[in-house]
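LOG
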Amino acid sequence: TIALAVVVLVLIAVVVGLARQAVYQIGDLHADVAQFLSRQSGLHIEFDAIAGSWKGLAPRFQIEQLRVSQSDQHEAAIVARQVDLEVLLLQSALQRQPRLRLNVAGLDLTLSKRNGRMEIDGLTLAPSAESSHFRLNDFADMVSRQPRLSVTDSQLQLKGLYAQDVTLSVQQLQIESGKVRRYASGRVTLRGPSNLSFDLKAQVRGSLLQQGSISGDVYLDAGFADWLPWIPAEQRKFRNVTLDSMQGGNESWLKFRNGKLVDAASRFSNHDFNLTSNSEVQPPRVKSLAGVARWQTDVHGNWNLGVENLRMVTPSFVWQPKDLQVSSVLQD
């Protein structure tokens, strides 16, 4: 028995040694690795260089200038300046699925909303590929569920989520996944009608690409910005007045259930919040508006908005109501 154990240990040591040597030499197999990945995915994958190393019992691969396209006749749909991939062998073996630490820098791609899902522009799997073991959206979900995913200095073009195309600039975003929930933190900027920058933290569950799937809590700390261009023109108009300007910053705590916002609290501070009227008497110019608001809705679509610690400063007076409540109830 002891002799058998010694033989097994020796065989394991030999296999690990060979694997380590193969990982270190993977740069010499650059073209073969690209062809293998292309065959497995049904896509065209290429990169300028790949290097391998070991970190403990985890092989690590660094890929430079990754490009993914539908075929060698198409332009790249996914571009990444650098991909750092660490394969957690022990966790992968225990959970019987790939477990990775993935760091991506300089990612550039376009996501479009189609049929309730976000899909990557330029990548359309053929029916034969869709029915095979590789599915692009499933693969993207699998990547987002890894123990750690880090994205830096990246640009994502977003289509179909807003009236105009929006660019999501990711300065830094890290996602860590547990058995059920995913935890995210980072700093991002939305570039569209105006620039909105956020520090964010979140704990959510569900698919990041499937509409109506996400549930959980999100915290956003937004710096000073011009918010008015993001509000559709029809939603700026009320019975007698129209929202004319809205600039400021806020902290927001959001709760989602099955992809829908059900609870939102915000500590806001606006330095330019003005309304205009078609009548001769105009609303007072608001120099600053600050307070804490909470909006909640129920399964029937009824909602309630409460505002506390409101302070509105105009050139002629200061208004500080103790509490404001607005409710909406749908009639049968």
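LOG (cont.) second protein
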Amino acid sequence: ISLGLVGSEMCIRDRYGCDWYDNHTLLIGDTAGDFKALRMVYKQRPQEVMSMNVGAPIVGIISSSQLGTTGVFTSDPAGKVRQWDMKSKKANEWGALGQALSIDYANGVVVVGSWAKHVAVLDARARSRPSKITVPGKCHCVDIYNNLIYAGVNKDAQNCAILLYDKRKTEKAIKVHKLAPAEGAVRCLIRRGNKGGFMYGTRNGFVGLNTAGSKQTVVTNLWGRVFQNNGGSRPPSLMVSSIAFNPRDQRAYIALSNGRIIKDMGNGNYNPIKFSSKAPLSRIAFSKNHMAVCRSYNFFDNGAQKKAGTAYPFNQVIVRHLPKNKYCLLYTSDAAD
């Protein structure tokens, strides 16, 4: 693995994503199980503050600096959730809970969406036994705020939904938004506001927005609305991969698998920002001063690089320094490290 200051971009091979531990520290994991923490220093080489291999592909990363050095969680394809101490590099094993991760930054409660049709709730501070909510299909994305749990659930092509639960009483969802079959499966979601609003993205390039207190969800076909092409068929590369909230301008940003990023301008309007990639995007994340974007070079093909005889995707993460509006640093990961 090599670090360096090259041109105006910072990159890393990373299929499954990244997360900001604090305003300057980026956590990165990949399919080879490599897990790193890099501290961003403007116009300087990033400082590697942690590096390890967790022994399995990383499919989820979430963290909260409010929990100190132990506020870092990862998940693997088998659903095993680990809570890491960045100083000792030791992990507390929470068991096979699921793959999708989200954390309530204020109180340390973590929710885990599982492909085994449940959502697990664990309290990282109390270290009590996790509870589970049974959902009607595979849970591919989750979010949490105070007592509200948001889950994106896909049962089959005709039954995909956003479910909201009160974590104090989880026998039944308190809100259900069922997607139209044309939207496709739910791929990602975030809460909007503090009273039950949400935004989600789908496999077929749709975005749904439900503002807090509203009974109606406004659904937008990005292929027709943003790219102004109502004729012809939607390209297979237009999927919504990730949605993140930018605390700097209080707007949501949407990463697409066609290499573009869309900004939610409000009132149902979405505009592309001045960013494009020849490779599909798989994750977007914000801190106060930075935007991190993951891109995958074999998202739709069978291309892969070899490492110790095993094929892994070749991916990168680009970091943009928001106050200076520049892509400033380079980090790259090689197959033969």
